[in-house]
Amino acid sequence: MGTHAHTPTHIPVAVIGGGQAGLAVSWYLGEADVDHVVIESQTAMHAWASKRWDNFTLVTPNWHCRLPGHAYDGPEPDGFMTRDEVVSWLSDWLTTFTPPLREHTTVSRIRHTDTAGFELTLTTDDGDEILTADQVVIATGGYPLPVIPPYASALDPAVAQIHSEEYFSPEQLADGAVLVVGSGQSGAQIAEDLHLAGREVHLAIGNAPRVARTYRGRDCMTWLADMGLYDTPTQEYPGGKAAQEKTNHYVTGRDGGRDVDLRQFALEGMRLYGLLTGGKDSTLEFAPTLTESLDHADSVYNSICADIDRHIATIGIDAPEPTRYEPVWTPDEEPARLDLAAAGITSIIWAIGYHPDYRWIEASAFDGAGRPMQTRGITQVEGLSFIGLPWMHTWGSGRFLGIDRDARHLADKIIESTSPRRPHLLSTHLLASGQ
């Protein structure tokens, strides 16, 4: 997939970001013959190969993987693709169409104007150029700026520090113990990766919930899909905005999929701590939240199982008997401090998430926290839209399961506005093709 030699100075639609979300929109625009360009700062789908660790696997079943014209059809629909298998699956998708893709080009600024729609500053190795567009789709991911706490710079420089997106394998780290900070999906799985490799692991956990991998004979995420939770619009989702702000449940697809049980890791020698609140030199401080955090994660685990129980009873499904998780370990104490040098810790991995960063977009489309104000990707700024955001429309948004639907909806809106006399062209095409 090469870089286009030339992009016109004006184009009807510019899609910023060449990941699966941006390219899904491009797929539908291409089917409707809408002139557009996809602008990617590196190469298409690069993050899958460059920002996942070596033993990464999906945490959602393979059957969730659906992109326009390309659903998973391999031998393990209930399995979990590895990083390299995902890269291969996405590469196969790119052979099925030819997006108007311009790679190695960074959009350093987007300015909304009253007369020309949008003015984009493109930065390449050859310098800057200006492109104008009637519509712009932002597909750069939900939260691209890695979070590193401000006190990190005050810690002992002898201890190496990396963000979770820079972690690939235990072998890249210096000999010695490792502190992982954060127990969301990445933190919990990286801690497991190090633990299975025989490294001494210290884990500072937050308020992330957890979920059973399988329950009553099926994968929990398959049960939840059957229950409609991935299809429920955000405004109707139980728990409202508070539920959407929570960290994703930790679980793993490794070795065919299993629970991630931090209590079991503790039994096997992993050291657990509550919320990391600060540090200086070789000393870290923790809040006394360890017991509460473990109990909360288990309560969510059991609550989800109970929801599945009710679904099974309501539908009358023949399934194995229900169970409840019972703790296999409880903390004897709440560690308040950790001396990195005394514990032999030589590396810290920050797995505490990302911040939004849309400072390069000059348009009145963001709230006080810098997040897009949108409804199903559409903002109140005419012509500006987003794709691939978590909870953009449903819990499935931002995941493979929801990208196709979100991209189809957004593309349909773009097609209607660019071709008002053929508002149902895409829908007609989809009906004809059986999608």
TrEMBL record:
Keyword match Transcription: no
Gene3D superfamilies in alphabetical order: FAD/NAD(P)-binding domain
Ion transport in keyword set: no
Protein's name in the database: MSMEG_0569 family flavin-dependent oxidoreductase
Signal sequence coordinates: none
Pfam families for the chain: Pyr_redox_3 (PF13738)
Molecular function (Gene Ontology), one example: monooxygenase activity
Keyword terms of this UniProt record: Oxidoreductase
Lineage: Bacteria, Bacillati, Actinomycetota, Actinomycetes, Mycobacteriales
Organism: Gordonia desulfuricans
Transmembrane domains' residue ranges: none
PANTHER family: FLAVIN-BINDING MONOOXYGENASE-LIKE PROTEIN (AFU_ORTHOLOGUE AFUA_4G09220), FLAVIN-CONTAINING MONOOXYGENASE
